[in-house]
Structure formats: structure tokens, C-alpha cells
Design a protein that fits this description.
The protein has about 350 residues and is of the alpha/beta class. Helices cover about 40% and strands about 10% of the residues.
Length: about 350
């Protein structure tokens, strides 16, 4: 019997449900720009520190995907929860976690959010309703569903926003979570961050159904494809999904069609795609440049935009300085926060 033919590798073409997203006010554009710039500059600095050896272990950067988490946060209210996988620094900053604490955790210092013991993939903030940072692919999906169950049980109108990638979308526990969430009408938004390559394999080679918004069809969960490079489109979709969940209608799936500029992690040379492909996305779709261009067209001065970038750079530089000079945790910390 002949072996099945291997599917040819190709760059998947993203397409969304069409239509122009609602315009932002000037204040919304400025907020989006600042929040996305903070993530971009932070991740660039984290990459530098990793190259210098100040950050060890794994480090997955969010550069290119900033519009997804920033747009979603603009659609949420206080009390809503966020949980994600290992590409998590952007989500932390978007929820309002302090840059010093995030960077200090990356360098393993006592001022980090997990006291220097969790590193890049394992940070939490009960105050900001951020529940990780999880290194096991897809593990956060069942946990995020559990957060939604807690909301349902308590009778509040909070929503659990559960992020995972195109690679994790093929995990069995994801579908068990979908089934439970729809059966119990749980208020959870499943955000699939489709950056096209998972750990290094194009979705065209790894997924039989490449329209991830349809992954909930067999469970009667509605889904929508979204331009994840346009923060306005993300917020509009987030508003729609949150309203659905708060009305007691159950879960909702958003496929955010986005793109990461760096490799899967800092150790990934990303030879599975061309430099020209990356540069084309940067040139044509960069989420920060889109906002910047709209602000310039609205007569916001170049000087004002540079001032925002300078403020963000000051915050990030201060966090890097703190993270390199804060003391390391005491050896006794090995025995704290351990359940027996």
C-alpha cells in the first residue's frame, strides 16, 4: 500500500469575516498605541537580556501579536479573568501587571511576580485577575473553563478569557473543555491566537480544518474570525463575545489571525519561513504602525507620538535595571508556596 502523500507546505492566507471595524476615538487610539508599544519595547528588551545571559530557560516573545491582547483588554471589565499559555508577557502587561515585577521574574529575582521561582512561563497576579502563564500546551484551556465555572457558580457576570494558539487547538483537552462549557453555558471566551506556525509547522500541514473559528461547531459554540493585526477589529469582536457570555448564552470562540515576528522561542531560528514573508507582514499589517498612521492622519503630531514611545522606553529601561540589580531569592524560598 502506498504511503499517503505529504501535504505541501504553504503560507496560509488569513481571511476574516469582512467589513470595516468601528473607528476608535482619539483617546482609544492613544491608549492602544501606548499599551502595544509597552509590550513591543518590553519584549525587545527581554530579547536583549536573554542574549546577554541575564534571562535563562525558555523565553517566548509576543512581538507582532500585540493588538490581540490589547484589543481584548479594551473589551473587558474589572473582575474578568485572563489565562494563557507560555507566550504570556504581553498578556501580563496588558492586564496592568507592573513591568518591574514581570522583568524581575524573567531574571529570577525576588521582586518578580512569582518571587523569582517561576520564570517566563509561570507568573500570576490575583490582583489583576491574571491566572498564568502555563508551559504545558493546552493545559490552560481546562483551567480557564474552570474559572468560568466559578463565575457561573457564584452568579456574577464576569468572563474568563482563555487564550491558546493554533497548535494547542488540536489538543484533546480543548474539546473536552468546549463540551463542558457549552453543556453548562459557561461564560468563557476562547481566544485562538493563530500566528500560523505553532511551534514551527504551518497550519496548512498540521490542521485538517484551518478555519479555527469553526472548531466549536459540533458543540454548538459560535465562532468568528478576526483580523488580529487590527486592534479595532479585536475590540469589536471582544465586545460581541463578552456580551454573549454575560447574557448567559455560554462560550464563544474568537480566532485571532495574527503573526509573530520572532521564532517560537528565543532558541528558534525560524527557518521554516522566509525573511521576505516576515518583512511583508511588518510592512503591510504591523498593528502598531496601523494605529500610528491613523493618529498622524488625525493631526496628532510626530513629536507627541515620539513622547509616548520615550515614556514607554523609560519604563522598560527602568524595569531592566531593576531586574538586573534586585537580589536573588533567599535559599529558604525553596520551601515556601509548596502545598503538602
Amino acid at each position: 500500500m502506498a504511503a499517503p502523500k505529504k501535504a505541501a507546505a504553504s503560507t496560509p492566507q488569513h481571511k476574516t469575516d469582512g467589513g470595516s471595524p468601528p473607528e476608535f476615538t482619539r483617546e482609544q487610539e492613544l491608549r492602544a498605541l501606548r499599551d502595544m508599544l509597552l509590550i513591543r519595547r518590553f519584549e525587545e528588551k527581554a530579547g536583549q537580556l536573554y542574549g546577554m545571559g541575564a534571562i535563562g530557560g525558555f523565553c517566548h516573545l509576543y512581538i507582532g501579536q500585540e493588538a490581540v491582547v490589547v484589543g481584548m483588554q479594551m473589551a473587558l471589565k474589572p473582575g474578568d479573568q485572563v489565562i494563557t499559555g507560555y507566550r504570556d508577557h504581553g498578556h501580563m502587561l496588558a492586564t496592568g501587571m507592573d513591568a518591574n515585577g514581570v522583568m524581575a521574574e524573567l531574571t529570577g529575582r525576588r521582586g518578580g511576580y512569582s518571587k523569582g521561582k517561576g520564570g517566563s512561563m509561570h507568573m500570576f497576579s490575583k490582583e489583576k485577575h491574571f491566572y498564568g502563564g502555563h508551559g504545558i500546551v493546552g493545559a490552560q484551556v481546562s483551567l480557564g473553563t474552570g474559572l468560568a465555572f466559578a463565575n457561573h457558580y457564584r452568579g456574577n457576570d464576569n468572563v474568563s478569557v482563555t487564550y491558546f494558539g493554533d497548535g494547542a487547538a488540536n489538543q484533546g483537552q480543548v474539546y473536552e473543555s468546549f463540551n463542558m462549557a457549552e453543556l453548562w453555558k459557561l461564560p468563557v471566551i476562547y481566544v485562538i491566537e493563530n500566528n500560523r506556525y505553532a511551534m514551527g509547522t504551518s497550519v496548512s500541514r498540521a490542521s485538517a480544518q484551518q478555519d479555527f473559528s469553526k472548531r466549536g461547531v459540533s458543540f454548538n459554540i459560535p465562532g468568528r474570525q478576526v483580523d488580529g493585526m487590527d486592534v479595532r477589529a479585536v475590540k469589536a469582536a471582544g465586545d460581541e463575545a463578552a456580551a454573549w457570555c454575560r447574557a448567559g448564552k455560554g462560550p464563544y470562540i474568537l480566532e485571532m489571525q495574527t503573526y509573530r515576528y520572532r521564532g517560537h522561542s528565543m532558541s528558534d531560528p525560524a527557518k521554516y519561513r522566509t525573511r521576505e514573508e516576515v518583512e511583508k507582514v511588518r510592512h503591510d499589517q504591523d498593528p502598531i504602525e496601523q494605529v500610528r498612521n491613523r493618529l498622524l492622519a488625525a493631526k496628532v503630531s510626530e513629536a507627541d507620538l515620539k513622547a509616548i514611545d520615550a515614556e514607554v522606553r523609560d519604563i522598560v529601561n527602568a524595569s531592566a535595571d531593576f531586574a538586573q540589580h534586585d537580589p536573588e531569592p533567599d535559599a529558604a524560598e525553596l520551601w515556601t508556596d509548596v502545598y503538602r
